[in-house]
Write a structure and sequence with these properties.
about 325 residues, about 35% helix, Epox_hydrolase-like, Alpha/beta hydrolase, globular
Length: about 325
């Protein structure tokens, strides 16, 4: 995959990549620009280039943009142990990355799992941050029991993808054909998440639209597929296999709220917000300094579906930050 084939015109920007030691591993990072440091954290099943519309926007406005391939993704290290992927470790990766740059404090913005990691950085390492932002997934706090226990109680075993991802055979299915897997997940309809399960697999239950999703461009899908050739889906699925371990390791922070200046953006079709509300969680009450919020008519892939809206909100938030 050459730089000329990068999506979102990223090849027009002088982005470089290098591996940086952090928290006992090395993360491969893509970066460009100078100025205040902004880290963008991707989710599942994404890659660093998922942030393309935001990368170009921030570079054009004078920020130092750093986008790591998260632990287990792309050319970053992928430890073999399942326990190496609990969210405490993932947050420590990011905190160590900020320290390695020597540009503290930084702003960190995440999407999907990257959003969850970002919230944990703010929760566990607030001294590293000037600001924190999350797209799509709300901050649930620690709660009284691990989130997997709640999901298992709410949904039958084959009903919900998080329980499905606990199984080795699900990973094997995802790894059979990365092109097919990523096309279905990134372009398919996820209405099946709220429907009773049947004998079909998670991937088979995703329905495909008659016409391609216009914001999920084919050049992005092709580039995304290329980043999964390094480790496949075992490491990313391991992120989902550590809810209990993360819960156990964060007991000392159970009563803590996020005090870092924060931004939270989501879409009307975001199922994780519905889950939080069904559990009686007020996701906005777990912050002491929530400066920017936004709700768009959009689904889960917020930064790609509504790039201009997201970029405007990010700009609004960054203007409130005192680095």
């Amino acid at each position: 995959m050459t730089m000329a084939q990068l999506p979102y015109a990223l090849d027009k920007y002088a982005m470089t990549s290098r591996r940086i030691p952090t928290n006992g591993i090395e993360l491969n990072v893509f970066e460009a620009g100078s100025g205040p440091l902004v880290l963008l954290l991707h989710g599942f099943p994404e890659c660093w280039a998922s942030w393309g519309p935001q990368i170009t926007y921030l570079l054009d406005r004078g920020y130092h943009v750093v986008v790591p391939e998260m632990r287990g993704y792309g050319e970053s290290d992928a430890p073999a142990a399942v326990a190496a992927y609990d969210t405490v470790e993932l947050a420590a990766d990011v905190a160590g990355l900020i320290e390695a740059y020597g540009e503290e404090p930084a702003v960190v913005i995440g999407h999907d799992w990257g959003c969850t990691v970002a919230w944990h950085v703010a929760w566990l390492h607030p001294e590293k941050l000037a600001g924190i932002g999350g797209l799509s997934v709300p901050w649930f706090g620690r709660g009284e029991v691990p989130i997997l226990d709640i999901i298992t109680a709410l949904y039958p075993d084959d009903y919900f993808y998080i329980t499905d991802f606990q199984r080795p055979e699900t990973t094997e299915l995802f790894d059979r054909d990365h092109q097919e897997t990523l096309t279905r997940v990134m372009r398919g309809h996820m209405d099946m998440l709220g429907q009773p399960a049947d004998e079909r697999s998670f991937l088979e239950r995703i329905t495909m639209p008659d016409t391609p999703v216009d914001f999920m461009h084919q050049d992005f899908i092709e580039y995304l597929v290329s980043r999964y050739r390094f480790h496949g889906f075992e490491p990313p699925h391991n992120w989902y296999r550590n809810f209990t371990r993360t819960f156990e390791r964060t007991a000392a922070h159970a009563a803590d709220v996020i005090t870092v200046p924060a931004m939270y953006l989501t879409g009307t079709g975001e199922w994780t917000v519905e889950l939080a509300q069904s559990l009686g969680i007020d996701e906005l009450a777990l912050f002491s300094d929530l400066r920017v919020t936004g709700l768009a008519e959009a689904g889960h892939w917020l930064g790609q579906e509504k790039p201009e809206w997201v970029n405007g909100k990010v700009s609004e938030f960054l203007q409130t930050i005192d680095y």
